[in-house]
Specification:
Length: 315
């Protein structure tokens, strides 16, 4: 005879065990820095910049919950060993805009060509604090782009790229009109904090666009690449009455360009991550990265990823 009471007790025990395992995983995941190496081509080709190495890091949230500062230091140490030609930073350097003197970003000094944009947390305490964060980054050899288009010619690389840095779209400070200027013969990389700006960009405004902001939901209970109520970040947007960006995590193809949205480095609000580990992204341009098994409007046609290693566990 079926014992309903016994079955219910077992179901409750199973649910409690699963919840405890998920909580433990979420508490440990912020310590598991992922180094992601990406070989990629571009829709217009990348022969002119073959071999160019670009590091992309975003959403540091230094001073925030969990090991955000420690993970920032570890990520920058790994970036230095890779010796990139160009380093791009996607914003949210200090959690809640609480700027303070810190050694967490010291490894940026001497890296060479380092460019950055600001994020919504950098503006959270007003324009004066944002200006302090800009000055802080400049003392670390970082050039902050606030709605600017520049030509980058790495000293030890023969090619060049266009870099379009937009100010924070989440705060409404971006100038999308800059993207209306068609890219020149050199590949164009668009750098901005939040992927919500994609809705305003014209077709073909860049070859590659890099974003952060979403943390992939930070605590993620859905395998969809689009934010939904199973992600913690969905509720943060709701509280702030912000529209959810269409593109939330991973690689996308839209408007004739490749798009990547990173999980970021640190945490905000909660010292937890689940199925959204912190990461540093290493991009290497390689014409041979194309995979003809996929259609040309699929990012898998252009992108090949490998996880180099993870830094495991708290120390």
């Amino acid at each position: 005879m079926f014992d309903r009471e016994r079955f219910a007790r077992r179901l409750i025990a199973l649910g409690a065990s699963a919840g405890l395992a998920a909580l433990l995983t979420a508490a440990l995941e912020p310590y598991r820095l992922r180094i992601k190496h990406v070989r990629l081509s571009l829709p217009r080709g990348c022969d002119a910049i073959a071999g160019l190495r670009v590091a992309f890091l975003t959403d540091f949230h230094v001073g925030g919950p969990g090991p955000s500062s420690r993970t920032t230091i570890a990520a920058l140490e790994r970036i230095r060993t890779w010796r990139p030609h160009l380093v791009l930073l996607g914003g949210d350097y200090f959690d809640q805009g609480r700027w303070f003197e810190t050694a967490a970003f010291d490894k940026l000094r001497g890296l060479g060509h380092v460019y950055a944009v600001l994020g919504n947390h950098d503006y959270r305490r007003g324009a004066d604090t944002a200006a302090m964060i800009v000055r802080f980054l400049e003392t670390h050899d970082v050039r902050v782009l606030r709605n600017q288009l520049v030509i980058v010619r790495p000293a030890d690389f023969p090619g060049q790229v266009e870099l379009l840095g937009l100010d924070d779209p989440y705060s409404g400070l971006h100038d999308a009109r800059l993207a209306c200027t068609p890219p020149g013969p050199s590949p164009r990389i668009l750098l901005a904090h939040a992927p919500s700006v994609l809705d305003e960009l014209p077709i073909g405004s860049a070859d590659l666009a890099l974003f952060g902001h979403t943390h992939w939901g930070q605590v993620r209970l859905s395998w969809s690449r689009h934010l939904n109520p199973l992600d913690a970040a969905w509720y943060l947007d709701k509280v702030r009455r912000k529209a959810h960006a269409q593109f939330q995590r991973g690689w996308f193809w839209t408007k004739g360009m490749l798009v990547y949205v990173s999980t970021g480095i640190g945490q905000t609000q909660l010292p937890l991550r689940l199925f959204a580990p912190p990461e540093a992204v290493l991009l290497e341009f390689d014409p041979a990265a194309r995979d003809p098994r996929w259609p040309c409007d699929d990012p898998r046609y252009y992108v090949r990823e490998a996880i180099l290693d993870r830094t495991e566990g708290p120390r």
